[in-house]
């Protein structure tokens, strides 16, 4: 069994495998741009960010009903559990669905039905994090937060995703202030493609407790020093970074540098159906490419639980951390 871990950076829409896409397309009468699953799997080998985003948003059209979202989340949880994920904090993008006529309630109730039985079926505890699309106006994000108010019992926090450059965190100051007022936890993508200043802004203006990606913090030593001092976790996604060309090859990934600097780094899958692997696959890939040893892998697993939003269930966090400390690393399979 792989090392127990929490997954903290996972877009549920990015877990749509070709087989499920075809099944849902048929059920809902939605045409797909490819003839069969083999052709679709081939299309998943996109070459750049724009071709990824075109495919990603195009395929969302197959998600229509609450049951579709339940199936999507259940399939992810089954795969994640196989790879040692014991706790998952799952992102979803309501604006991408509302824009296609699928209301907030359908999305949240559908995902929620899968999350409600995740522990029993897969042994995975869960939280839900609602992300705003940063390339849409702040007013749209605010309207989305408003639409989520009847469902806040199911939503732990808010995040910020999609195309980063040219869309600085400060644009969403009021939305995050309102989210804080509603008692929601706050995270944001920053420093994936955007500059270190976006990471500072996410911390200072949006009040985020965790930075998604944060890779480019390394360009600013004083920012690194602050992230270390304040123990701000970074949710890294190594295979995603290679596919979207944030790093050239996995061997050049700065994960080890970040661990050595004392950053609270975690390893996650981002959009696993599209980027070549789930959480355990990402652990295995960095282990092989960077030559990480058992204690570095244990640190990554420990960090994932320390960085998770389990403040309302500290006993559970303690149990997970004890599992990490007791884990014996074998020759393969992290
Ligand atoms: Zn992401």
UniProtKB/TrEMBL annotation:
InterPro entries: A_deaminase_dom, ADE, Ado/ade_deaminase, Metal_Hydrolase. Gene3D superfamilies: Metal-dependent hydrolases (3.20.20.140). The active site is at residue 192. Residues 4-316 form the Adenosine deaminase domain. It comes from the Bacteria. Substrate binds at residue 271. Binds 1 zinc ion per subunit. Keywords: Hydrolase, Metal-binding, Nucleotide metabolism, Zinc. Signal peptide: none annotated. Its EC number is 3.5.4.2. Pfam families: A_deaminase. The record marks 213 as: Important for catalytic activity. Zn(2+) binds at residues 9, 11, 189, 270. HAMAP family: Adenine_deaminase. Belongs to the metallo-dependent hydrolases superfamily. Adenosine and AMP deaminases family. Adenine deaminase type 2 subfamily. Catalyzes the hydrolytic deamination of adenine to hypoxanthine. Plays an important role in the purine salvage pathway and in nitrogen catabolism. NCBIfam families: aden_deam, PRK09358.1-6. This is Adenine deaminase.
